Amino acid sequence: MEDDLHTKARTPLLFDAELTPHRSLSPRGFLLLMVAVCAISFGAGLAFFLAGAWPVIGFLGADVLIIYVAFKVSYRRGRLVEQLKLTAEDLTVTRIWPGGQRRSWQFQTTWLQVLLDNPPRHSSPLVLRSHGKTLAIGSFLTKEERAELADALRHALAGARGATH
Length: 165
What we know:
alpha+beta; 4 helices; 47% helix; elongated
């Protein structure tokens, strides 16, 4: 078993990719957005309070809290990572969730199919299939990014199959 690990460590990688969800709002942008939302809610709340409709302040506060929680959940989901490592023998996909859980799948290069609708639609999954096992990867990527990844993976697989024969 130890020899197998050493052999695996010496096997050259033909394709190595790390996929992560894109988050366009930086932490500084998030802070500025929350300051703006708080300022608008405070201004509106003050206006309602002065008009005698003070219960509205609670709803405005709840809106701020909901926006904050929604962004925090989105940022947490953005820490998902999918690693693709292709050698001449197999493709290993490792998915690491934000909580630190990890799961790996291995597919032999000889039988592996990379499936994606042509042309890809927004909802088209990028699927790896071999021996009755399927795995959708890159669900957080745009359709263009999934198509580009599928093409690169197919090209690398063709090279891996050539290296084994």
